């Protein structure tokens, strides 16, 4: 997300109208809790992450669960109520589409 121009911490953001796949396909948007469309930054961050992964020859990536960027199996539904839906975040989906295996952080903390 920092590669997309976001600060840490950043205002909460969720995908509205779908999943990371839908965002990459232009069918959903990422909005922050303040109502600002932050889709462009999330896509830019995902693309920059993919560039770095390719340069490093990465085959796997460890990402944070539930995030609109990094979630793998479940992400927040866009209502900012804590409800989850099945799907991946923008970065997770872009990496997956490019052959990089995604592992959620919770899978390695056991």
- The secondary-structure element order is EHEHEEEHEH
Physical arrangement of strands within the biggest beta sheet: 1-2
Mean pLDDT: 91
Strand content: 15-25%
Q: What would you report as the Rg, rounded to the nearest angstrom?
A: 13 Å
Overall number of strands: 6
Sum up the overall morphology in one term.
globular
Report the uncertain regions. none
Give the helix level as a range of percent: 25-40%
Number of helices: 4
Largest sheet properties: 2 strands, antiparallel
How far apart, in Å, are the first and last alpha carbons? 26 Å
- Structural category is alpha+beta
Could you walk me through the main structural features you see in this protein, from its secondary elements to its overall organization?
With 110 residues, the chain is of the alpha+beta class. Helices cover 32% and strands 20% of the residues. It has four helices and six strands, in the order E-H-E-H-E-E-E-H-E-H. The chain has helices at 20-24, 39-56, 90-97, 105-108, and strands at 13-16, 29-32, 60-63, 74-76, 84-86, 101-104. The strands form three sheets. It has a two-stranded antiparallel sheet with strand order 1-2. A hairpin with a 7-residue loop joins strand 4 and strand 5 (84-86). Helix 2 (39-56) packs across helix 3 (90-97). It is globular, with a radius of gyration of 13 Å. The two termini are 26 Å apart.
């Amino acid at each position: 997300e920092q590669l997309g121009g976001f600060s840490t911490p950043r205002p909460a953001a969720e995908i509205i109208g779908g999943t990371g796949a839908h965002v990459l396909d232009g069918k959903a948007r990422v909005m922050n809790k303040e109502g600002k469309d932050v889709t462009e930054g999330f896509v830019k961050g995902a693309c920059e992450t993919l560039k770095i992964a390719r340069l490093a020859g990465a085959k796997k990536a460890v990402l944070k669960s539930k995030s609109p960027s990094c979630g793998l199996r479940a992400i927040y539904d866009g209502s900012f109520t804590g409800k989850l839906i099945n799907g991946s975040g923008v970065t997770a989906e872009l990496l997956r589409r490019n052959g990089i295996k995604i592992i959620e952080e919770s899978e390695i903390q056991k």
